[in-house]
Amino acid sequence: MQEHVTDPLAGTLVDNRYAVASRLARGGMSTVYLAVDQRLDREVALKVLHPHLAADESFLGRLGREAKAAARLSHPHVVGVLDQGNDGNTAYLVMEYIKGHTLRDVLRERGALSPRLALALIDPVVEGLGAAHAAGFIHRDVKPENVLIADDGRIKIGDFGLARAVTSSTSTGALIGTVAYISPELVLGQPADERSDVYSVGIMLYEMLTGRQPFEGDVPIQVAYQHVNGTVGPPSALVPGLAAEVDELVQWCTANDPENRPVDGNALLQELRHIRTNLTDAELDLQPPAAAAATAQHQTEVLARASNPTTLIPPARPAAPGYPPGRQPLQQDSTDGGAATEALMFHSRRPDLALPDDADDADDAWTAPPPRLSKRAQRRSDREDEKVRARAAATPARTLREGNPRRRGIVWIVVLIVAALLATGAGWFFGMGPGAAAEVPAVANKTVAQAQQLLNGVGFHSTTSDVFDDQVPTGLVVGSDPSAGTEIRKFQPVSLLVSKGPQLFPLPKLTGGTLTDAKNALNAAQMALGPVNEQYDDQTAAGTVLSQNPAAGTPARHGTPVEMVVSKGPQPIPVPSVVGKAKDDAVAAIKAAGLTADTSPDAVFDKSVPEGAVVSQTPATGTLTRGGTVTLTLSKGPKMVDVPSFIGKQAADARKALEALGFQVRVNNILGGFFGTVRDQEPVNRKVPEGSVITITVV
């Protein structure tokens, strides 16, 4: 239902485009209004954020990015994001307007649902989540309030982008989302992924099937604690008779460890539809205990108002919430009308039968009154009764011709003897013979020969049939039918159930694909993920599964853990430093490290590195993968330079010129070098290595 409440924003125009008509709902993060987009002349849902969120500039920027991303997600089961913006202090999101109600309204009105209806309602929700997960979105706040059911039967999940933006802007680790449906990893402040949404779906499905949430508490922290430390029980504990497949589906989704849940919405959708296809009609239409009681009460009220049981028809069922009369999107409670119709047919066929004396007043209205006969019919009935009494009176009490008493005595003796023999035979047959009763002995975990010997010792004949069993070894007896301790007649056969061992299924091939692909394959095959080890591999990209144990195709029982080795990519090799080494030694060192040496054709002069040795290398440090190349530059030794003569020249000029040529100058003063003139020089007028020491004698 729409909640029309007077609001200051009602009747205003937001951003010169959206005319606010009325307030629809208010939540923890925003208030939702019904508005009209005046530009496109259509009704929209205007979600206006609360002031404390609208005042956060970093949050608004993040919300804008998330809204743009969510707007690109187009799916028939996801509420579309149409626009986002700010109008002064008003920050808003414009979303598709779904006229109808929420799944919370359905649960509040109907309580627990039949498996058929629950699975049908959850299917489009999971399909929408699967599409979002495939596009890289995580909802983080899946709950019945966010599942919208349109009047025309469409089912959509809303609030994509908003929950993610709020979560990202929360620096203190506060819980965002309804605590009743929050996943354990979100409670612990760990990163959320697609499996967090799957957990919330499992909690929601549990509530749809049982009419209550699995964890309850006086304060939210108690519920959060149970999510982390508790285990969601099977729904069948509250709804007896619920199919085991439905129990397994709920508990698979709500596993505490995310690794034990479906990897995303699409994986869950595949299993959900498989279960819906394979359940019988009786399993799908199972009525929860509360729903069955309500149905019985409703039928009693209808019958109490009736005056003629042969003309009653079952009342028309009300339309499902949000659907027009006469149109039901899903088949629900199909047994109600059938039970009422059968009750009416029973009363009309058997008007002579009355209900028990302790029935209530409403049911007493159905007790058929004694038939009222006409006077002619009453006289006819009286005459028939007189004829019956006359025939009974005319029948003699004893025969008129009595036989020979002795002969009759012999006959009676023979009869008694035969009866005694029959009684004796029957006594032996049922007391000690094949008809005697005996208990079936315990034969579990025994060989077939041992079990047959036990049965023969008691007097039973046995047959064998093979069954799969995960605990009892192959060839041993699992049990018997009838079971041990049951008392039966010895002539009744006993079937020995002989173990064929566990039922085995071939393991899927995991090698060659990514680790994510391998997890999906294990989930699909109902196998478990074992230890995952990593190792370097020069030929395989990082993240690729290199091997598995047991190998692909190996027969294994469901739940068998499979160990995998995943590639870390090529191993990084530190580059050795070979500067200063001779060429051959440098090349050998690089090859020993698993790398390739390449010599540059351009050698360079170097006064400190001998000719033929390595002057530099590229790269000089860091790591390379195996076979990577290190380029070496070799030395041509020091450069040879002519030493000109500076004898007779001033020492200062000589020193300056020699240093410009790259030489080192040593000055030897004689008599204190008073005149500053170069008297002698060594070496002079010949080539020497660059950087050599030139000695000048100054007077």
How would you describe this structure in keywords?
Transferase(Phosphotransferase), domain 1; 6-stranded antiparallel beta sheet; Phosphorylase Kinase, domain 1; elongated; 3-stranded antiparallel beta sheet; 699 residues; 29 strands
Indicate the structural class.
alpha+beta
> What is the helix tally?
20
Q: Tell me the strand percentage band.
A: 15-25%
Radius of gyration: 47 Å
- The CATH architecture of the domain at 102-113 and 139-160 and 179-284 would be Orthogonal Bundle
The first-level CATH class name of the domain at 102-113 and 139-160 and 179-284: Mainly Alpha
The shape is elongated
Number of DSSP strand runs: 29
Largest sheet: 6 strands, antiparallel
Distance between the termini: 116 Å
Mean pLDDT: 78
In which order are the strands of the major sheet placed? 1-2-3-4-6-5
Work out the helicity level: 25-40%
State the low-pLDDT regions, or none. 165-176, 291-381, 390-403
CATH fold group of the domain at 102-113 and 139-160 and 179-284: Transferase(Phosphotransferase), domain 1
CATH 4th-level superfamily of the domain at 102-113 and 139-160 and 179-284: Transferase(Phosphotransferase) domain 1
